[in-house]
Each structure stands twice: as C-alpha cells, then as structure tokens.
Amino acid sequence: MTANDLTTMLFVPATKPERIPKAVASGAAAVIVDLEDAVPAGAKEEARAALDAFLATHRESAVFVRVNARGTAEFSADLDLCRKHENVAGIVLPKAESAADIVSATEAGKPVIPLIETALGIRSVNEIAAARGVERLSYGGLDLSDDLGIEGDTEGAQVILDHCRYQLLIASRVAGLPAPIETVFPVFDDPDAVTRRARRVRNMGFAGMLCIHPKQVGPVQTGFAPTQEQVAWAERVIIAAESAEGAFKVDGQMVDAPVIAMARSILARVA
Question: What is one process in the GO biological process aspect for this record (predicted)?
C-alpha cells in the first residue's frame, strides 16, 4: 500500500470484524477499522479484543486503524494493539491538534493520518503536516463543523469548510505530503451525489475520500477518475507537444509547459 493508493478509504466498526473481509473485497483502496466514534464508550475493550483476534488470524489483510484521541483513556491501549500487528498499515488519529499528538501516535511505529477536527487543529495544521511520521492529512467535517458552530450542509458551512480544505491543501504541499483526503459524505444511497462531491474535491486538489458505506466506493472512484473528455484532451495535448516547440494551441487554447504537465498528470491518473 502506497501513498497513491488511498483514493477510497472505507470505515468498518471494530465491533463488526466480520465486515472487514467484505470491506477489503469492496474495491476500496484501503480499509479503516474504527475504534473511536463507531464504538460505544462501554464497548472499547471488547472492540479491541475483536480487532486483535481478527488481525492475528488474517495476516494478509492490511488495514488502517482509527484510534481514540490522544488524552483519552483508550489511547495507549489502542496504540499497543496497533504496535502488535504488522498488518496495521497506519493509524488514523482523530482530534489532531499539535505535533505532539503526532509524536505520541508514532510510538506505535506506524505512519499517521491526522484528522483535523477542531479550530485548534486548523490553526496548527502547518505544524501537524510537518511532523515526522505523517502519511497525509484528512479532516472530520462533522466534528469540525460542530466545533466551529456552523450548521451542517448549508451554503455558509460549505464556504467555511472550503477555507479549511484550502488550508489542508496548502499545508500538505508545503510539507511535501501527498494531497489530502476528503472527509466522509453522509449520503450513500445517491451515487450521483457522491460522484459530484468526489469530483468537486478532486478539482480542489484532494486525492481521495473517506467512505462510510461500500456503496460509496464506486461513485467516489468515478468522481476522482478523469472524464473521457479530459483524457481525450490530454492525449491531444501530448501528441501536439511531441512535434511543437515552445507554446502552441490545442482546441483554440494556448498550451505551454504547465498545461503539458497537467495533461501528463491526467494520463497518469488513468494509468
């Protein structure tokens, strides 16, 4: 599993380990087994035990694990579990607010995907992105909205969340990280809506999306894949570039080095 393999990251509750093989077989690029929000407070130890047993008997199944946040009573035990198993590919760290949070999480010896879910996390995003051990950034849109006091999927909320996306994108680029991962989209029974959301955030520079249901995997993949029109345009640009010197025109538009690079990027995504 590489940094380029995370277009779709599908959550599975740790209390339902029988769903993990199905999630792995869903076509998702990665599976995140959740010890945090999907597990009731009184079932944390039971969930860890279930995941421990699964990982011990399914060594071929590499998964990410969303642990409980640093500062909670469950954090150390979650890290111990992740440290124990080679098939834990990485840690998804909720409520990341500082580089110190990342340092604590990396004690498990795994790469970390911090979830930015608070105003303090947004303010510290550059420090977090630069911390050693960070795989890439993501965020929790619902928790962040709650912390900022904005109202759900409204026009105003989207404006604020777009500003947060922008900060994750810039912080990732400056730190030399792969592009960030979009938060979960709560709709899973409307594939067109899922595809539109995935395409929108792809156009904002994001490289993947967290999924909460297997039905979202295909539509998200569609949203992040180049359209047929984009591929055809990119092919025309590359063909023209092979015989051109300096700037030239394709479809009536000027093409220079940055546009050629964009065309190559589109074809690389297809590959």
Answer: oxaloacetate metabolic process
Q: Could you identify the residue written with the tokens 């940055």? A: 258
Q: What is the secondary structure of 71-113 as a DSSP string?
A: TSTTHHHHHHHHHH-TTEEEEEETT--SHHHHHHHGGGSS-EE
- Answer whether 203's CB lies under 8 Å from 17's CB: no
Contacts (Cβ under 8 Å, ≥6 apart) of 121: 95, 96, 97, 114, 128, 139, 144
CA distances from residue 211 to 40, 86, 124, 254 in whole angstroms, order as listed: 20, 24, 25, 38
Whole-number average pLDDT of the chain: 94
Rounded distance between C-alpha atoms, residue 125 and residue 35, angstroms: 24
Per the listing, tokens 């569609």 go with 222
- Is 143 among the annotated ligand-binding positions? yes
d(C-alpha 209, C-alpha 205), whole Å: 12
pLDDT tens-place string over residues 172-194: 999 999 999 999 999 999 999 99
CB of 240 closer than 8 Å to CB of 250: yes
Please tell me what DSSP assigns to residue 183. Answer: P
Measured in Å, how far apart are the chain's first and last C-alpha atoms?
17
Residue 219 gets the label, from left (phi > 0), alpha (psi -120 to 50) or beta, of alpha
**Residues in the chain, overall count:** 271
Indicate the residue type of 131: A
Render pLDDT for 140-154 as a digit per residue (tens, 0 to 9): 999 999 999 998 778
Q: Which residues contact 3 (CB under 8 A, 6 or more apart)?
A: 135, 136, 178
